[in-house]
Write a structure and sequence with these properties.
This protein is an alpha/beta fold and 460 residues long. It folds into two domains: 284 residues, Hexokinase, domain 1; 136 residues, ATPase, nucleotide binding domain (Nucleotidyltransferase, domain 5, 2-Layer Sandwich). 44% of the residues lie in helices and 18% in strands. Strands 1-11-10-9-12-13 form a six-stranded mixed β-sheet. Helix 2 packs across helix 13, helix 7 crosses helix 16 and helix 11 packs across helix 13. The protein is globular and about 75 Å long. The N terminus is likely disordered. Bound molecules: adenosine-5'-diphosphate. The site of adenosine-5'-diphosphate has 13 residues, from helix 10, helix 11 and helix 14.
């Protein structure tokens, strides 16, 4: 063991292994773009699934009437009603409610889960104020269903569940049409509502953001996990069977699956081996909120084992997987005090250690290294999408503003991550093209997007 004031070889090597200099970052962006093309050519052609969303008609702003959104993707589900007033009035009224799902329903039967959702939806509708929300005579209520689990979409309003994730394991659902399950439950519970659109979270964000700003071409989620969707020209999608291939459609890239030429360290490898999907989603494991704290924890653990980072012992808490979370890294990097007091208190609260100033500085460096790599790699992904769009539309080249709509708490709450991402964007695109790109934080527009897609795909 060397003492803590001497050089720390673990940290030095880690920083070196995480480096993403511009030429290398460009290679990553190109590799992502290659896998996008491969995925558009044939099913399973590349690491990115490039799923056809069947969303061809994007909201125009003229939508009118009462529509609903249901978002199911974690331990809570959200319902929203939206009264649309057309081009001028836009969103006349909207209400939403979040309902937590009892754990036993996450591992029960599909009748139980969807029955519960239908009942809650029915009481949400029953509470509606007739003055604010108005269903036109002769119309049934229509719903945009955001279902954030792996789905094989078969049309705008049908899709089969590939597998449950995130702690869900509802029996008898895999391979079934999730829209039919919800429609049946609503009918059983006497609710006059039907699903008009099945949408992915990113697609909802893109559609919702585009309603307010028509220059939106990309929707990115950076939260616990990550994904990106974008507007693609149908004529450049070889795997699209339909012969009438003019116009645009939204592609759900599932970019978290990208797994080539990434700057992996021993800590990434070890975390991956212990994960539920080893060898997969390596990009997601470097850029999304679920993993960044865990990478830092693993680095700090090895620093403790090789130097007296926090004194002669390895803190017990540091050996607990996922003890350190991305929120903690964010707090650590916020600290502007000379003696890094906040860093000290986070380390005390989470790891139960009294860290010297030298140790606190090192912890900040580890966090910064992980966040810098994550932010820059996320930037490279966005550049891959923008360059693909540019190649087929030349919009930025002709001076047209192009907007990336962003949602997710990692992007929203981590300023350093945002800055590193923006730096990467400018480095790779160049100042001129980058000046036409705006990254806009669009919070919670995915529900509005889903309701709008129900409107665009209304049967009435
Ligand atoms: P979702 O789970 O649907 O992605 P969010 O967009 O709220 O939901 O993202 C939550 C994730 O964002 C957390 O898992 C965490 O990684 C990250 N996060 C939450 N709060 C913060 C914060 N204050 N600073 C940095 N990251 C945060």
């Amino acid at each position: 063991r060397s003492n803590s004031t001497s050089l720390c070889p673990v940290l030095t090597k880690f920083q070196k292994d995480c480096a993403t200099p511009t030429p290398y970052l460009r290679e990553v962006a190109n590799a992502i773009a290659d896998d996008m093309r491969a995925g558009l050519a044939v099913e399973g052609g590349g690491d990115l699934d490039m799923i056809l969303s069947y969303v061809d008609a994007l909201p125009s702003g003229n939508e009118e009437g009462l529509f609903y959104a249901l978002d199911l993707g974690g331990t809570n589900f959200r319902v929203r009603s939206v009264q649309l007033g057309g081009e001028k009035e836009r969103v006349v009224a909207t209400e939403s409610e979040q309902i937590s799902i009892p754990h036993k329903l996450m591992i029960g039967t599909s009748e139980e889960l969807f029955g519960f959702i239908a009942t809650k939806l029915a009481s949400f509708v029953a509470k509606e104020k007739p003055g604010r929300f108005r269903l036109e005579q002769g119309k049934e209520r229509e719903l945009g269903f955001t279902f954030s689990f792996p789905v094989k979409q078969t049309s705008i309003d049908s899709g089969t569940l590939i597998k449950w994730t995130k702690g869900f394991n509802v029996s008898g659902m895999e391979g079934k049409n999730v829209v039919a399950c919800l429609n049946e439950a609503m009918a059983v519970h006497g609710l006059d509502m039907r699903v008009s659109a099945l949408v992915n979270d990113g697609v909802g964000t893109l559609a919702g953001a585009k309603y307010w700003d028509e220059d939106v071409m990309v929707g990115v989620i950076l939260g616990t996990g990550t994904n990106a969707c974008y507007v693609e020209q149908k004529r450049v999608i070889p795997k699209l069977q339909s012969k009438s291939s003019s116009g645009t459609t939204i592609i759900n890239t599932e970019w978290g699956g990208f797994s080539k030429i990434l700057p992996r360290t021993i800590f990434d490898r070890e975390m991956d081996e212990k994960s539920l999907n080893p060898g997969e989603h390596l990009y997601e494991k470097m850029i999304s909120g679920m993993y960044l704290g865990e990478i830092v924890r693993r680095v700090l653990l090895q620093m403790c084992e090789t130097t007296d980072l926090f004194g002669p012992f390895v803190p017990v808490k540091l050996s607990t997987p996922f003890a350190l979370r991305t929120e903690h890294l964010c707090k650590i990097q916020e600290d502007k005090t000379d003696d890094l007091q906040i860093v000290g208190s986070v380390l005390y609260d989470i790891l139960e250690v009294e860290a010297s100033l030298e140790a606190r500085r090192r912890v900040v460096e580890v966090c910064d290294t992980v966040i810098k790599r994550g932010g820059r790699l996320a930037g490279a992904g966005i550049v891959a999408l923008l360059q693909k769009i540019e190649k087929d539309t030349k919009r930025m080249g002709s001076g047209k503003r192009t907007v990336v709509a962003m949602d997710g708490a990692l992007y929203e709450k981590y300023p350093q991550y945002r800055e590193y991402m923006q730096d990467a964007l400018v480095e790779l695109l160049g100042h001129k093209l980058a000046s036409y790109v705006a990254i806009k934080h669009t919070k919670d527009v995915s529900g509005l997007g889903a309701a709008l897609l129900a409107a665009t795909n209304s049967i009435y």
